[in-house]
Design a protein that fits this description.
The chain is of the alpha+beta class. It has helices at 4-18, 39-46, 123-126, 140-148, 154-159, 169-179, 192-211; strands at 23-28, 34-36, 51-57, 60-65, 69-73, 79-83, 93-99, 104-108, 115-119, 248-252, 255-259. It is built from seven helices and eleven strands.
Length: 268
């Protein structure tokens, strides 16, 4: 599913197109798309609210409205479109929101896993999330302290959104390779020096992903070309860009995981 760079790209594209417009009406075509509140309350509350800003928290798209907050999680196949006046719903459209200029803000989701929340209290949706990788208050020392507080394999821990927000399978593999850390390494075995490398590796791969508008691989997301610059992800058997050792693939926490056995030696 789209990770932090892909959702950040979508937010940056959507903000200038949505900012300032007022919601005129809604059309909910798949009831389970709406996680909260009820369809009736959703429609009565959201109509008439202005869209003040579109940004991102973790993997959530966040629309700050004049009274409430609209959160969207794309999951496996969700996609967002701005359609011109007169648009007729596609068979995979799940939620349509009409704007005061006649355009439609459309949530399309073939697999129906995506969800939408409307709330006046953001903590109801994102209250359990960990720190953002780019938050100025998040430092190498804080990462090290958090790593030491767990005795978990580093790959699944980085995927845990309550530990660190926004990381997914792709960028975790890329960051661990950049930092030279084996994906099965226990978090409390990572030294302060390695934690610092991991901190900057996470920021580096996320920044690169954003610069390339994300990666387009196996979901509907149509954004960028970062897949052309992967170091290890999806490159099983290909040479490591650092040492030329063939990239290996294992399953970690039921997730396909790519690494270089030479650059990322396993630590017992």
């Amino acid at each position: 599913m789209p990770e932090l760079p892909e959702v950040e790209t979508i937010a940056r594209v959507m903000n200038p197109q949505l900012e300032g417009w007022v919601i005129q009406s809604t059309l909910l075509l798949w009831k389970r798309t709406l996680a909260m509140p009820s369809p009736r309350e959703f429609k009565s509350r959201i109509v008439g609210q202005a869209i003040l800003r579109v940004d991102r928290r973790a993997k959530f798209l966040h629309l700050q409205l004049s009274k409430d907050h609209l959160f969207i999680h794309l999951r496996m196949s969700g996609d967002l479109w701005i359609k011109e006046p007169g648009y007729q719903a596609d068979k995979h459209d799940r939620l349509l929101i009409s704007l005061s200029d006649g355009r439609w803000f459309v949530f399309n989701d073939p697999r129906k896993f995506g969800r939408v929340w409307l709330t006046d209290d953001p903590s109801e949706v994102i209250g359990t999330l960990g720190p953002e990788p780019f938050d100025p208050a998040f430092t190498p020392q804080i990462l090290y302290t958090r790593l030491q507080a767990h005795h978990r394999q580093i790959k699944p821990l980085l995927l845990d959104q309550s530990f660190l927000a926004g990381m997914g399978n792709i960028y975790t593999d890329e960051a661990l390779h950049t930092a030279g850390i084996h994906p099965l390494t226990k978090s409390d075995k990572i030294s302060i020096q390695k934690a610092k490398k991991l901190f900057y590796a996470i920021r580096s791969v996320l920044e690169a992903g954003i610069a390339h508008n994300g990666a387009s691989i196996d979901w509907v997301y149509r954004g960028g070309d970062f897949q052309n610059y992967f170091r290890v992800y999806g490159r099983t058997g290909e040479p490591c860009p650092v040492c030329r050792t063939p990239i290996e693939r294992i399953s970690v926490g039921q997730r396909g995981t790519h690494f270089c056995p030479k650059c990322q030696p396993r630590v017992s």
